[in-house]
Structures are given as C-alpha cells and as structure tokens.
Amino acid sequence: VHLVESGGGLVQAGGSLRLSCAASGSTFSIDDMGWYRQAPGKQRELVANITTGGGSTNYADSVKGRFTISRDNAKNTMYLQMNSLQPEDTAVYYCTADYVDGIAWYRSWGQGTQVTVSS
After folding, report:
1. Which of 1, 2, 11, 39 is most enclosed, with most CB atoms within 10 A?
2. Confidence band of 111 (pLDDT split at 50, 70, 90)
C-alpha cells in the first residue's frame, strides 16, 4: 500500500486547510487509517483516526471540534479538514493505513505534507 499526502501549505491563524491522502496498491486490504503530525523538536503524535467504514473516529484533544477526518473508500482517499488553525498546529502531517498481507498486519506511512500556520 502506497500513500501520498497533499493539501498542505501556509495559512494564517484562523484559516482552514484540507489534507488528502491517496492510497494505491492493495487498497482492498486497508483497514483503519489515520493522520499523525510531528512538529519541530517534538514527538510524532496521533491527530485522528478512522475505521474502515468511517463509522468510528477518534481525535486528539487538541484538535477536537476543529478537525474532521473522513474517507471515501470508492476513491481510496482519506481527508483531514482542518478549521480554526492555530500556530501550534504547525507540523508535518503524515497519513497512515493499516493493512493485512497474508496473516500479518502492517502500517504504511505517507511521505508527509507540511502545514505552517502563521500568527
């Protein structure tokens, strides 16, 4: 499974961005997907994740009410709508996909997309 993120950029505080994560390869084997971020000098952290059918989502406390994760399985794409962005949201954002290959589970990571929020 190969993942490619897009949609990052520079935005002013209070603005919005929509990240996309396009999956290719054995997409039929993908289960849960998620978004992580890593700010300079900080550990990578979970932002949000979503189950296969999109029926269940989970968010970091810091983004609840501002970010929305969704996925379109027909397009093999996951999204992260980010509203009311703040400078502390500045980070490289990575998408992940958990998939099964035979009897083993794996996690694929995208290359990351930079989000910069100016004050």
Report:
1. 1
2. very high
Check pLDDT > 90 for residue 84: yes
Tokens of 55: 């029926």
Q: Give CA separation, 114 vs 8, 19, 30, 53, 89, in Å.
A: 5, 10, 24, 27, 10
- Written as six digits, the tokens of 73 are 């399985």
Residue range 13-36, pLDDT digits in tens: 999 999 999 999 988 899 999 999
